[in-house]
Design goal:
Elements (H helix, E strand, L loop, with lengths): L4 H10 L24 E6 L2 E6 L4 E6 L8 E4 L4 E9 L7 E9 L5 E7 L12 E3 L5 E7 L3 E7 L4 E7 L3 E7 L3 E6 L4 E6 L5 E6 L16 E2 L4 E4 L4 E8 L2 E4 L3 E2 L3 H5 L2 E3 L5 E4 L4 E8 L9 E8 L4 E17 L6 E6 L4 E5 L5 E5 L8 E4 L1
Antiparallel strand pairs: 1-2, 1-29, 2-3, 4-5, 5-6, 6-7, 8-9, 9-10, 10-11, 12-13, 13-14, 14-15, 16-17, 17-18, 18-19, 18-20, 21-23, 22-23, 23-24, 24-25, 25-26, 26-27, 27-28
Length: about 375
């Protein structure tokens, strides 16, 4: 049986137009609720994906360029800060670096502040840091000369550049100061005045041997300072008292027996600390010297207060990145070699859920 086009058209025209009325969407309107300590970021090749660890559901995407090292959150002010680099011809031409301020509720750009075109692109959490006064943001540069750009995120202006030869990493301390890890085995402390200009500078004594056992460029913030870990698995407690850097005596994360079996930390992001319980989580593998970049086959749990191991988690596939949430009942996020993001109860290590596709090219896990 044939049905003519004219008859079909007649039927369609007879249906009331209201039956087909669809409320149009407004593109680009995203309104996030108040983030919880279970929320975290996964930095990927095309931006940073915001997830809720309680549900495993993606909350939004912060779009940014590939060169962004990390994102600095300022939850109280409802903002994210990130350093970006842009080229006038896409991959060549005139380079412009900016600090971009992103609104936490809408994930849209609030403003941009032009800074020297020198920012370091490696995906390291502490290549950017908001100081204790919540006004001054420090961005690490490498051109290859090393320096730090200071930005006033209240008045939205670039303050100035501080030369820091041989030193890297931003470790905020106090109201307007930050420490840096230096290539001669020391720490450098730089203090700023109220305008954000350099006001003081000092060094610690040398406490680690760069050629023999360097520290990871992954300082962990503690209740009163920082924890630094070496490639072999030694730990140093660091704090600043009366503008003086104090470094404690080293202690081992792993036993002498494990060291004899060549267990050592490894991975792109092998260390994470839960400050409320003083529990340190470390990706470990068996390997020779200079294998610190190899992924971990298990996670050791270290009680840093008693300075001893209290547990371990064998991994189904080697992992490169771990992060513990800042909650009373913490979660442990593990990005495995299977390309999935596994969420565990950090105290019982039981797996809670898995995010099968966390985003393209994950290179850094971040808490808020």
């Amino acid at each position: 049986m044939r049905i003519s086009f004219a008859k079909v058209l007649g039927v369609l025209l007879a249906v009331p137009v209201a039956a087909f009325a669809v409320e149009p969407e407004t593109a680009g309107r995203v309104m996030l609720g108040q983030p919880t300590p279970a929320w975290f970021l996964i930095k990927g090749s095309s931006g940073s994906y915001l997830y809720d660890g309680d549900t495993g559901e993606m909350q939004g995407l912060i779009s940014h360029d590939w060169y962004t090292p990390a994102i600095e959150p300022n939850i109280d002010k409802g903002e994210f800060y990130l350093a970006e680099s842009f080229y006038s011809r896409g991959v060549r031409g005139t380079r412009t670096d900016v600090v971009t301020i992103v609104d936490l509720e809408t994930l849209s750009t609030r403003s941009e502040i032009v800074i020297p075109a020198k920012t370091a692109p490696a995906a390291l959490r502490h290549y950017i840091g908001l100081l204790g006064d919540r006004r001054h943001l420090a961005v690490f540069n490498m051109t290859p000369a090393q320096s730090v750009s200071i930005v006033d995120v209240v008045d939205l202006r670039f303050v100035g550049e501080i030369s820091t030869p041989g030193c890297a990493i931003i470790m905020p301390t106090g109201d307007r100061a930050f420490a840096m890890i230096c290539g001669d085995g020391t720490l450098q402390l730089i203090g700023l005045d109220e305008e954000g200009k350099e006001a003081s500078r000092s060094r610690s004594k040398s406490f680690f041997m760069v050629e023999e056992d360097p520290v990871f460029a992954l300082p962990l913030e503690t209740e009163d300072g920082w924890l630094l870990v070496t490639h072999d698995g030694r730990a140093f407690d660091v704090n600043v008292k009366e503008q003086e850097i104090r470094v404690g005596l080293p202690w081992w994360l792993i036993s002498e027996e494990d060291r004899a079996e060549r267990w050592r930390p490894g991975g792109a992001q092998p260390l994470t600390l839960h400050r409320r319980t003083n529990l340190l989580y470390v990706l470990m593998h068996q390997g020779a010297v200079d294998t610190h970049g190899e992924p971990g086959t298990e996670i050791r749990i270290i009680d840093t207060a008693r300075r001893r191991a209290i547990g371990r988690l064998d991994l189904e596939s080697p992992a490169n990145h771990i992060l513990v949430s800042d909650e009373a009942q913490p979660k442990l996020y593990v990005f495995g070699g299977d390309g999935k993001l596994h969420i565990h109860d950090a105290l019982t290590v039981a797996r809670l859920r898995t995010i099968d596709e966390p985003g393209p090219g994950p290179s850094l896990l971040q808490g808020l």
